[in-house]
Amino acid sequence: MAAGTRVSEAFLRWGWLLPLTLPVVQLAGRAPANVVGGVYVLWGLWTLAVVRPRLPRAPVLLYLAVLAAFAASAAGAEDPLRVARKLFKFAAHTSVFPFTLMALAAGASVRRLGRTAAAWGLASLAALYVLLPFALARPDYDPTHHLQEDELPFVAPFLLAGALALRTRMGARRAAAAGLSVLVLVAAYVMLSEGRAALAGLVVGVGVWTMAALRWRSRALLAGLALIAVAAAVGGPRFYRHADQIAAQGWFAVLDQLSSRRMTIWQRAIEQPPARALTGVGLGNPKRLGTLDDVADGWRIEALHNVFMDAWYETGLLGLAALAAFVLAGLVRLGLALREADPGLRPWLGACLAGALAVLTAAQLGISITSRPFSVYLFLVLAAGWVSSRAGPRTA
Question: HEC states along the chain?
């Protein structure tokens, strides 16, 4: 029993931060990331059983409602086993939410969460640039497949908060220079990757952090516009190859091209809604919305490339409502916690809010429900608001 207590205490001290290492670990391959994730889930479940913490009731109920609604999509699904596999993956990823609640309720700090995210985010950025020459040298180089930018919009606000925290050690000017340098490196990599979703998430994340942490509302707007202008100037030929050919065809055609045909995909989904409105076609089940014949070689639609559209189509109105309520409540709690935070904690809570909104923005154009940015990092930072706010909810 003493050994079990030591194991659980180690989880509450530092094990709960293990998911923040994934931006680096996943660069070594899927297997190491799965091993780290598996160890984390088993360790967290053991700690949950040993400690039996009194967790805030409202977020736990909202989280369980999401799992229940997603599980209900198996009823009548074409492939119930696929639903079970996807649900298991989603539950394993999102277990960071109750485990983070448990750690924060036991005395862990949001400040430490932020510092750890910044440290591992910086390590992942350095590793990405070390691997970049090897990716560029590949004869079959394709930025959409060989560059990994999905985590950068999430870690960028934490890197900025980390630079801000260095003011007392290295002075305001050097800290500002460090933050700007890191931001330029992140933006440059995202531009090289041609990731529209990541670029949108980065703009939102940086803008929200400057407003939330520094209260630079006008400067945040100017910074966002400047970043968009730089993206248009530097990446124009890459991002908008055919804009001049379709400008005369109307806004839908322009947006459809800029979004890599997502507008057409969403239109097709709306025209062919799921037969079961409440439970959808089943989590992870193929959409079978046909092909886009006007795309070279045809393009079978297997995903809607929008988290909330995917939630609606795969898990129905029940899944969409449960997920939207969970996310919205978490964002509201983060906002309340940020408003009540002291100046030392504000940059880190601001990074949590900015990281969450960056992931949500990217999720409207690319990443899926079970992707790590959405089901791991978003759920992790949403837990911070529920415990950080002074007027905490009732516990269960």
Answer: CHHHHHHHHHHHHCHHHHHHHHHHHHHHCHHHHHHHHHHHHHHHHHHHHHHCCCCEHHHHHHHHHHHHHHHHCCCCCCCHHHHHHHHHHHHHHHCHHHHHHHHHHCCCCHHHHHHHHHHHHHHHHHHHHHHHHHHHCCCCCCHHHHCCCCCHHHHHHHHHHHHHHCHHHHCHHHHHHHHHHHHHHHHHHHHHHCCHHHHHHHHHHHHHHHHHHCCCHHHHHHHHHHHHHHHHHHHHHHHCCCHHHHHHHCHHHHHHHHCCCHHHHHHHHHHCCCCCCCCCCCCCCCCCCCECCCCCCCCECCCCCCHHHHHHHHHHHHHHHHHHHHHHHHHHHHHHHHHHCCCCCHHHHHHHHHHHHHHHHHHCCCCCCCCHHHHHHHHHHHHHHHHHCCCCCCEC
Residue 217 makes CB contacts below 8 A (sequence gap 6+) with: 211
Domains of the chain: which residue ranges? 2-388
Question: Within 13 A of 46's CA, how many CA atoms are on the CB side?
Answer: 19
- pTM (2 d.p.): 0.88
pLDDT by position in tens, the chain (length 396): 566 688 889 999 999 999 999 999 999 888 999 999 999 999 999 999 998 888 889 999 999 999 999 999 998 788 889 899 999 999 999 999 999 999 999 988 999 999 999 999 999 999 999 999 998 888 888 887 888 888 999 999 999 999 998 887 888 788 888 888 999 999 999 988 888 889 889 989 998 998 888 776 555 556 555 655 555 555 555 445 555 555 556 666 666 666 667 777 888 888 888 888 898 888 887 665 555 444 444 556 667 888 999 999 999 999 999 999 999 999 999 999 998 888 889 999 999 999 999 999 999 887 789 889 999 999 999 999 898 654 444 445
